From TrEMBL:
It catalyses: D-threo-isocitrate = glyoxylate + succinate. The active site is at residue 222. One of its GO terms (biological process) is carboxylic acid metabolic process. Mg(2+) binds at residue 184. The lineage of its organism: Bacteria, Pseudomonadati, Pseudomonadota, Gammaproteobacteria, Oceanospirillales. It comes from Halomonas beimenensis. Its cofactor is Mg(2+). InterPro entries: ICL/PEPM, Isocitrate_lyase, Pyrv/PenolPyrv_kinase-like_dom, Pyrv_kinase-like_dom_sf. Keywords: Lyase, Magnesium, Metal-binding. GO terms for molecular function: isocitrate lyase activity; metal ion binding. This is Isocitrate lyase. It comes from the Bacteria. The keyword Transcription regulation does not apply. PANTHER family: BIFUNCTIONAL GLYOXYLATE CYCLE PROTEIN (PTHR21631:SF3), ISOCITRATE LYASE/MALATE SYNTHASE (PTHR21631).
Length: 532
């Protein structure tokens, strides 16, 4: 970002060159507006954030404690407040990203209304949300810098040069709220050409990282639902290529591709892979198909499909839907093959959708992948679809039982029961939950931890709490004590909601444009002044 005084000098020279025609333009105001608008296009953002992700990936390779995190956000305001909160509490946004969940786009942003996570929402709603998120993050920059510039004006009026110099330094070293977004393109919303076209829109909106999964586009299911159907590797590689070409066409050479595999929970495939010789990629994929060995043509009924599998003729199991069935118990082997194949064909990061948060299970697969691809790294979904309390209590129960400890006081199937909340087992499970991200990043190759739809749940929970009190006996106290008083005391910027929405920025612009004739909203009668 250019230094404020350098911008001021450049714009002063530019005004002078206009020989009086721009005398109404104040170079200081113009320089201020430039500094407050660092990113002019989504591609500026994509290139900037791609570099950040690449640096973070290298830092993680050197030290697994340097993992990254994100929360899924379904609205620009939610993403903005998340980043403002991070800067307030931690002083930096380093290694904190945003996640754009296809699940939340379907559930909350579709013009059809709430939809299941099955790629039925409008594909354009995905790049639209990316653009919205970055619009709000850029506005957070403008909002924060606007306060610094107002303080700078006051310091200059007071003749406090030391304070003014300090504020200029803070302005010049301002850390943006703009961070990388890992954006979910589902299974590509169609063929490879459709994937390419949508990827371009997402990148142009600002996405530096696109996550794509190996499910069939028209059969796509949420990773935590049943009925998932995968595609042969050749089909998936074509879509990885499509995304890479989109990045390269738009000049985002550092663009990041996350290849997700749903094979651990997918028991079906849409089609048999093309194979030319034993042991090739198609043959490996087909080797997992379930079927019955046959010895003669008499074993083949009308409509049966027969393939050669490990040198033998096999009648593969085909469902009434036309889909083919994988052999039971092959999910982990298929995951490993998927991941190795994706990394060898242009993917940068992996996503393994699992049915529970278990460090040992994840590590077992990653270690196998790293035997072939030593730098393999994961993006992992710390999913709200997991019952984290029950999962970790059961993991502790199993560990204690394996150690020979007495677990007779606990019912493994009922460990979610509140009666166990104050037990030693529950305390140990909470500690394992607290350390899950650290442990998994160290032991299971997880570079990025995300929660897909946390703000879906927080919005519902906070709304329920407010509605219960406000429409009940508490009345207005439910809002005052439960929301506003906490905002004031915890320093939440939205307590001055007019300022957060841009009223002070607008007032300053009115002064730039109209001078002394500006009609401002932030005068003495603005009720926002009650909050200091």
């Amino acid at each position: 970002m250019a230094a404020f005084n350098d911008e001021l000098k450049t714009l002063a020279q530019l005004r002078e060159a206009q020989r009086g025609k721009w005398d109404n333009i104040d170079p200081e105001h113009a320089a201020r507006m430039r500094v407050q608008n660092r990113f002019h296009t989504g591609l500026d953002i994509a290139r900037y954030t791609a570099k950040i992700m690449r640096e973070d990936m290298a830092a993680y390779d050197a030290d697994s404690a340097q993992y990254t995190q994100s929360l899924g956000c379904w609205h620009g305001f939610i993403g903005q407040q998340k980043l403002i909160s991070i800067k307030k509490h931690f002083g930096t946004t380093k290694r904190r990203y945003l996640y754009l969940s296809g699940w939340m786009v379907a559930a909350l942003r579709s013009e059809f209304g709430p939809l299941p996570d099955q790629s039925m929402h409008e594909k354009t709603s995905v790049p639209a949300l990316i653009e919205e998120l970055y619009t709000f993050l850029r506005q957070a920059d403008t909002w924060e810098l606007n306060h610094l510039f107002r303080d700078l004006e006051e310091a200059k009026k007071a003749g406090d040069q030391a304070k003014a110099d300090e504020l200029v330094a803070r302005i010049d070293n301002h850390e943006t709220h703009v961070v990388p977004i890992i954006a979910d393109i589902d299974a590509g919303f169609g063929n490879a050409e459709a994937t390419y076209l949508l990827a371009k829109k997402m990148i142009e909106a600002g996405a530096c990282c696109i996550q794509i999964e190996n499910q069939v586009s028209d059969e796509k299911q949420c990773g935590h639902q049943d009925g998932k159907v995968t595609v042969p590797h050749e089909d998936f590689i074509a879509k990885i290529n499509a995304v890479r070409y989109a990045f390269l066409e738009l000049g985002v050479e550092d663009g990041v591709i996350v290849a997700r595999t749903d094979s651990l929970g997918a028991g079906l495939t849409q089609k048999i892979a093309v194979t030319n010789e034993p042991g090739d990629l198609g043959d490996q994929y087909n080797s997992y198909l379930d079927g019955d060995e046959i010895t003669s043509a008499a074993d083949i009924d009308n409509g049966d499909v027969v393939i050669k599998q490990n040198g033998k003729l096999v009648k593969v199991k085909r469902l009434a839907s036309g889909l083919y069935q994988f052999k039971p118990g092959t999910g982990e082997d298929r995951v490993v093959l998927d991941c190795i194949t994706s990394l060898q064909n242009g993917a940068d990061l992996l996503w393994i959708e699992t049915e529970k948060p278990h460090v040992g299970q994840i590590a077992g697969m990653v270690n196998r992948i790293r035997e072939v691809c030593p730098d393999a790294k994961l993006v992992y979904n710390n999913s709200p679809s997991f019952n984290w309390t029950l999962n970790f209590r059961q993991q502790v129960f199993d560990a204690w039982e394996a150690e020979g400890r007495d677990v007779s006081a606990y019912d493994r199937a009922d460990l979610m029961n509140a009666k166990y909340d104050d037990t030693e087992l529950a305390a140990q499970a909470d500690e394992w939950t607290r350390n899950f991200q650290r442990d998994a990043s160290r032991e299971a190759g997880i570079f990025h931890h995300l929660i897909t739809l946390p703000t879906y749940h927080t919005a519902a929970l906070s709304t329920d709490n407010l509605a219960k009190g406000y429409f009940g006996d508490e009345g207005m106290l439910a809002y005052v004590a439960g929301v506003q008083r906490r905002e004031i005391r915890e320093g939440i910027a939205t307590v001055k909601h007019q300022d957060m929405a841009g009223s002070n920025i607008g007032d300053d612009h009115k002064e730039f444009f109209h001078g002394e004739a500006a009609l401002k909203a932030g005068g003495k009668d603005n009720t926002m002044n009650q909050f200091g």
